[in-house]
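Entry 14. Ran structure prediction on the chain below.
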Amino acid sequence: MGKGKLAKFADMAEYPHVFEYPYSQVADTPCEMKGNWNRDFFKNEHPIVLELGCGRGEYTVGLARRYTDKNFIGVDIKGARMWTGAKEAFDEGLKNVAFLRTNIEIIDRFFAPGEVSEIWLTFSDPQMKKVTKRLTSTYFMERYRKFLVPDGLVHLKTDSNFMFTYTKYMVEVNHFPVEFVTDDLYHSGLDDDILRIRTYYEQQWLDRGLSIKYIRFRLSQTGELQEPDVEIELDDYRSYNRSKRSGLQTSK
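Output, structure tokens:
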């Protein structure tokens, strides 16, 4: 029988590579790890890569296995799901992976300027109703700017046409340099070891015939950010673990 939530939370509290900061706990208190992740935890100066909304942590762990010259931190608020990746990393003795359990809305409280080199957004909820909740919105780009290195990389991998289309518009209106973009990743011809990592839900979507979209761009540190003023057709399918969002046909 699998572990229940309480048992998983108990494990998480004991794992040395898991850091838990509920919103209320850090509202007025600075995080002691901010600016000190390499020195105090990883014990090296390798680049730090974040996976925001890491879910089960499959991508975080997969990246850490392949790239021992980088440090990876998976971030999510749902500890019971994160436990899967945290346990794998612990059992395998991976030294270049950590997990941060907190709200992504306050992610800039945990990292100092220039402390992070890349951000991965893997199958984030498209948040079709509210732009400020989308992890590729300018609301979040402003936060990412506070800790990403100049022109740091942002990767988006998604099954959502809405999320992909919105992000392309956001990147275009803000003139962010795009390194690669495709609306059908596994038929794009891109030969990249990173992109061979497939999460559990990604495989389910592929099995349903849904194409996976991907965009990689650089986030500049200068200039006032602008939200794209466009209408985008809503996704018309029920993705795994997502309910149908709205009866509307388009959204800004």
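Confidence is low (pLDDT under 50) at residues 240-249. Will compare against last week's run tomorrow.
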